[in-house]
Design brief:
The structure is a single chain. The chain is an alpha+beta fold. It has one domain (2-54). The chain is built from one helix and three strands. It has a three-stranded antiparallel sheet with strand order 1-2-3, with no helix packed on it. Strand 2 and strand 3 (45-50) form a beta hairpin. The radius of gyration is 19 Å and the shape is rod-shaped. The termini are far apart.
Amino acid sequence: MKKQVQLIISAIVMVWMSLAGYGQNVGNDFTIEGIKYKITSATTVEIVDYDTSFGTEVTILPTITD
């Protein structure tokens, strides 16, 4: 019984930590090669600005990693 309680508590803590980390990222901004992105969900971003000193041609990648 004691081991089951420990497993349940561990699972709850792991889920809580993953959700806490997710919530901190949504709304954050980051920049890659002059393109400024805003995180809108766990799997999507929105381009919010572009630094023209990188040039006038922009390649928007299908996936990015911050």
